[in-house]
Structure formats: C-alpha cells, structure tokens
Design goal:
heterodimer; A: 8-stranded mixed beta sheet; 6-stranded antiparallel beta sheet; 11 helices; 28% helix; 20% strand; B: alpha/beta; 4-stranded antiparallel beta sheet; ATP-binding cassette domain-containing protein (chain B); ABC_transporter-like_CS (chain B); transport (chain B); ATP binding (chain B); ATP-binding (chain B)
Chain lengths: 368, 328
C-alpha cells in the first residue's frame, strides 16, 4: 500500500516520477475514438481502499469504486458520511493536514498517488473536472463568467484571448444559457442560481473532461430548476460519454440519474449495487432505513420510519459495525467486528452480516 | 364562543408590498411579495404551503403572526381580528400563535442555556412561579424527546436535530394553539428529518395543535398536510385537499413541480423540465404570473390574470384559464 502524505505536494518538484499515462496530456479532440466498454480499456477511474484521516481522526475508511466511460456512479450519504471528502481526496483538493492513503487510485491506468503537483494541475479542469454545490462561492465574484471559462481554456489548451472567448460563448450556449454572447460578460451576481450553475457546468466541461465529479450540483436549487440542471447533465453525459461521479444526499436524484450507487455511512461504503438493485432490494439496514424515512410526493405513508439516534462523530466510532447502535436488526456479533463489503447476490455488495445469518463471511477484507 | 364550523385561522385578501431602493433620484421599486392570498385553517388541521424560493410562502407565515405588518387584508384568529390589536394585545395573543424556524442555531441565543431558553417565554408572559416554570421545563423537555440534564447545556453542544427539538419545546412553552412551521425540517439530514416530522405529528395529536406548514419539499408537504396551497410569485395558484393536489393537480405549475420531483422507484429516468427561470418578483409577467414558463399558455394568459376558481366544483381551486387541461 502506498501511503501518500498530502503535505508533500507543495514540496512538489522533488517527485519527478511520472507514470506512462502522463504522456497523454495532449487532449483528444471531441468525438474522438469512443472506447468500447470492453475489458481491454482501463476504467476511467479506479479507486481501491481509499482512506482519509484528518490528524488521528479517520473520516473515510476504505472506499473503493470504478467508473467506466459513459457510466454514472452515485455516492449517497448524509452529512459527515465522507462522500465529499472522498471526491476531494481524488482531486487532491484537501488541506495539508489530510492524510490520504489508498491501495490504488488510477485515472485511465495512470497512478494518481504518485502524480506530482504539476501533473495534477494538468489533469484538473482538463481531464477531471468538478462542479460544486454553491455556484456563488465556487465562482470568482470579481471576474465575469466568460473570463473564468476562458481561463480554463487558455491554461489547458493554450488558446489565445479571442479564441478562448469564442469557445466560452460556445460553452455557455451548450449549457442552455440564452443570449450567450451577451451573458459571457456577466458577473456571477448578475445571474440567477440556475444560470450560475449552468455557467459552472460550462466551465467544467469547456475542455471536454473524461471524468466529471459533481458534488451536490442541484442541492441549492429550486425543484423546477433542479430538474432543468439534471436534464442538462443527462444530455451532456450522453453527448460526451463522460464517466460521472454524482455526490448527493438526495436518493431521488441518484435513483433517476445513476447507473451504480454507493451508500456511505460514517466514512464507510455500506452498500454498493446497481441503482435499480439498491432501491428495489436494499440489503443494508441503513439503506432500508433511509428509504423508509423519506416522504415521497408520489405516495402516502401513515408514519415515517425514523432511524433512531444520530450519526456518530468520526472521533468516537463504535468498535464493531458503525451503524449498530442505530440498527433495528442488530445482534451481538455486530458489535464484535466491523463488517466490510461482502458480495451479496449479483453485482451487489453490502457491509452487513445480516444476509449471512450474522456470521462474518471471512473476517477479512473483501476484494473481488 | 364560536360555532363549530368557524375556522381557527382565517386569512382574507392578504397583501404585502415591499418598497425596495428609492433613494434621492432613484424611484422605489415595489415588490408584491404576497398578492391577494386567502385561506382558512380549521382547528386540528395542517395546511401545507409549498412553492419555490421567492414565492412569498415565508412572508405569508410571518404576516399571519404579524411579525411583519400586512399592507392589506384580514387575519382572523379564533374570531379576533389580529390587525386591529394594539401591540400589547398582540403580544398577549402570541401565546396562542407560535413559529418554528428553519435554522435552529440562528433562532437560539448562544449565550443562554437550554433551560433558560425554554423558560424565557414563560418569564416574558409572566406565567407561573419559578418552581412551576421549572416543573414545566421538565415536561417540555420530555415532550420533545430531550432529557432533563440537557437543561444546563448550551445550543452549540447539540446536533441539528436536537436543536430543532429545543426550538419546538420553546414554541410549546406557552401552550399555543397554532404553530407556523417554516421549513422546520428542511435543514436536517433525512434520517433526522423523519424524527422531527414524526415528533411534530405526535405533538399535534397530543396537544390538539393546528399547523401552517411551510416547505419547498413536496414529499414533506404531502406527508404532513391535510390541505395544500401552492404559491407562485406571491399568488396562490392552487388550493385543495392533499389528494386533489397530489393526485389530480389542475394547475400547470403544480404539475411541473410534481414532475420535477425525482421519483425514486422508477429507476433511471429522463428529466423533462419546464423551461425558463423564475421571473424576477420586481418585474412579474403581466397576466398569469406563470405564463412565461407554461407549456399550455395562450393569448389570454399573457393579458388577463386568472382568478382562483373552483375546479370540478367543491373545495379544489386553481388559478388557471385552462385548469384541468393538463394532467399529471
């Protein structure tokens, strides 16, 4: 296992090691060869056993996922579950005192753990882009949206000022901003919340990234605007066949948007399945509880199921299963050890020993 | 004193205009935050008020309690015209009318202990002796699912869900009959939101309360409400029983809202959003406020504002020239 200490980044140039994948820093043109999703091409993203700790406090313990071209992976969890921190670790956007380790963290076969700061600067915004929850704080208030989109293009594609501006207008048009040639000179505060989120998406997609990480992209928006942004993201996803990681607390958004879902609880993935499976036949008591606790606009229930208690703080995690103190199905063995993801049915994994009759399948890590 | 049919709270033609700007040479702009809103809530009933940001739902909640003064309209609570009350009388009236806000941390004084916070309303209204207040504090903590030892702690020591419980205990301290819940569970994680919604429902049954429940979340509104009012740009666009609104909505905006809400059990679905942004409340479209985004808008919609009128007879009302033409 490679243990990577993020405080090394700013020391930077002492890590000249580059893996072979670094050669493809020149961007493929749009509509370039669409890789078949056969087994030959490496997945866009491959993360194995990612751990993040702030000082001695573990906030992410063992997250693994793979994203293929054209695939949407949803990461769902409540606040403090570690979903955003996992994404920020991948983008290497965490503060210095974050301690990141992983067995593997690859982008198109290239090892990201050994990538240096300069390589990350090439990747971020060009190959791997991110959109955030609150466009008002993620956009720079003293630059026009056009300048901010052009900045990405000038930096990654070495475009001149005029060309970059033209591309920025194109980018705004593609995300459905009316009169883009005029709005390109707007400052963020001159736009509505939905328009700002469109502008941020335009910025993220300006260089046609292969991976898009969307961290609660619609949480701050009204429902009709949320539907517009999700519709736009679906269109763009289809058009560019990106690998998308969608981070959200909203199970409804994930179920309608993602191919695959990971449910996180207290820094751990507790369930990993196709979206259809996870919602139709959840196996983890936490997933079941979450689904039963959300009132829907499509149907009535007499009483909501409320998961008792609250999420444990990361510095005071229970010794066994982290969900055990709140779990309706808990038994004594649950307090003995922490379950990791075990296969449970077809393409479905769950960190719970209930499906195996409260027997730990192997007491070891479960890697496929 | 009232006959059985009189609603506990009755609001007629409520209107609130805010003057914005207006300094030296610049003319003030007027925003009609709430425009001709009427509704009635019977005792023991929950009216859900739903809409997107800027629709005026929060303003309605505050107008009802006269936390802000209405520009026009009548508010009648249990036969009393609230607008005619003098400030001291209104203050006394607030024993019956309470509010729970979205952000519990912002609503609680950080320097006061939980005990002081919950006792404060009783002190202000001069209710009980210190010993009686202390006994009541114990009851209230128990009622909202907190322990007596929590009384000595401060708001920052609690989680979001527990803080909302403190706010609820504080609102209940004076034995109110009517509570405005303004996005009372919206800032909470889903598992905690369910706890608070269940608590509010239990308290309503136990204490015979009446709620005006304001939320942007359609699922929450469906779950908690008996009747539902949908607002758009300061106007009521649809008003009816929960089943009418959610199963047979008649207004294109309500239909758009319901279609926008992600459905969990359908699996991967394509979104079909209605186009357009929420218009600026400074410059609302003429005619029907929704016509600029409405898929079935016609000539008349751009010029004549549709009145709120009955749909298929009965209690269900919609403000649309072509109500019922679209279906969910």
């Amino acid at each position: 296992m490679i243990v990577y200490d993020i405080s090394m980044i700013d020391g930077a140039e002492t890590v000249p090691e580059r893996s072979a994948g670094a050669e493809r820093s020149t961007r493929q043109p749009a509509g370039g060869p669409v890789a078949q999703s056969d087994t030959a091409a490496p997945p866009l993203l491959e993360v194995r056993n990612l751990k993040v700790a702030f000082g001695a406090v573990p906030v992410v313990s063992g997250v693994s996922f793979t994203v293929h071209q054209g695939e949407v992976v949803g990461i769902v969890g409540e606040s403090g579950s570690g979903k955003s921190v996992s994404a920020l670790a991948l983008m290497r956007l965490l503060p210095r005192h974050a301690h990141i380790s992983a067995e593997r963290m690859n982008f198109c076969g290239e090892d990201l753990l050994s990538a240096d700061r300069r390589r990350y600067e090439q990747l971020r915004g060009a190959d791997i882009a991110m959109i955030f929850q609150e466009p008002m704080t993620a956009l720079n208030p003293v630059l026009t949206v056009g300048e901010q989109i052009a900045e990405t293009l000038r930096r990654h594609e070495r475009l001149g000022r005029r060309q970059a501006r033209a591309r920025a207008i194109d980018a705004l048009a593609r995300v459905g901003i009316p009169a883009p040639a005029r709005r390109v000179d707007d400052y963020p505060h001159q736009m509505s919340g939905g328009m700002r989120q469109r502008a941020m998406i335009a910025m993220a997609l300006a260089c046609q990234p292969r991976v898009l990480i969307a961290d609660e992209p619609t949480t701050a928006l009204d429902v009709t605007i949320q539907a517009q942004i999700l519709e736009l993201l679906q269109d763009l996803q289809e058009e560019f066949q990106m690998g998308t990681v969608m981070i959200t607390h909203d199970l409804g958004v994930v179920s309608s948007f993602a191919d695959r879902v990971m449910i996180m609880y207290a820094g751990q993935v507790v369930e990993d399945a196709s979206a259809a499976q996870a919602f139709a036949s959840p196996k983890h008591p936490y997933t079941e509880g979450l689904l039963a606790s959300i009132p829907l606009s499509q149907s009535d229930v007499d009483r909501l199921y409320a998961i008792p208690g609250a999420v444990p703080p990361p510095f005071d995690l229970p010794p066994g299963c982290r969900f055990e103190p709140r779990c309706a199905a808990s038994r004594p063995p649950c307090r003995e050890a922490r379950p990791v993801l075990y296969p449970c049915g077809d393409d479905h994994r769950v960190a719970c020993i209930r499906p195996t009759g409260y027997v730990f399948p192997d007491r070891g890590e479960c890697n496929e | 004193m009232n006959n059985a049919e009189a609603p506990l709270l009755r609001v007629d033609n409520l209107e609130k205009r805010f003057e914005i700007g207006g300094r030296l040479l610049a003319a003030a702009k007027t925003v009609r935050a709430v425009d001709d809103v009427s509704f009635a809530i019977n005792k023991g009933e929950t009216l859900g008020l739903v809409g997107e940001s800027g629709c005026g739902k929060t303003t309605v909640g505050r107008l009802v309690l006269r936390l802000i003064e209405p520009t026009a309209g009548e508010i009648t609570f249990d036969g009393t015209d609230l607008k005619s009350l003098q400030p001291a009388e209104m203050r006394a009236m607030r024993r019956d009318l309470q509010i729970i806000f979205q952000d519990p941390l912002g609503a609680l004084n950080p320097r006061m202990s939980v005990g002081e916070l919950i006792i404060e309303p009783m002190v202000i209204h001069g209710i009980g002796t210190p010993a009686e207040r202390y006994r009541r504090l114990g009851e209230l903590l128990n009622l909202v699912g907190l322990a007596r030892y929590h009384a000595g702690r401060f708001p920052h020591e609690f989680s979001g869900g527990q803080r909302q419980r403190i706010c609820i205990a504080r609102a209940l301290a004076l034995n109110p009959r009517f509570i405005v819940c303004d996005e009372a569970a919206s800032a909470l994680d889903v598992s905690i939101q369910a706890q608070i919604l269940n608590l509010l429902q239990d308290l309503k049954a136990e204490l015979d309360l009446t709620y005006l429940f304001i939320s942007h979340d359609l699922g929450v509104i469906r779950h908690i409400s008996d009747r539902v009012m949908v607002m758009y740009l300061g106007k009521v666009v649809e008003y009816g029983d929960k089943q009418q609104i959610f199963e047979r909505p008649a207004h294109p905006y309500t239909i758009a809202l319901l279609r926008s809400a992600p459905a969990r059990h359908k699996g991967k679905t394509r979104y079909r959003a209605i186009a357009g942004d929420l218009p600026s409340p400074f410059d609302p479209p003429p005619g029907c406020p929704f016509h600029s985004r409405c898929p079935i808008a016609r000539e008349i919609c751009t010029s004549t504002p549709p009145p709120l009128s009955p749909v298929a007879g009965g209690t269900h009302q919609a403000a649309c020239h072509f109500a019922g033409e679209m279906t969910l």
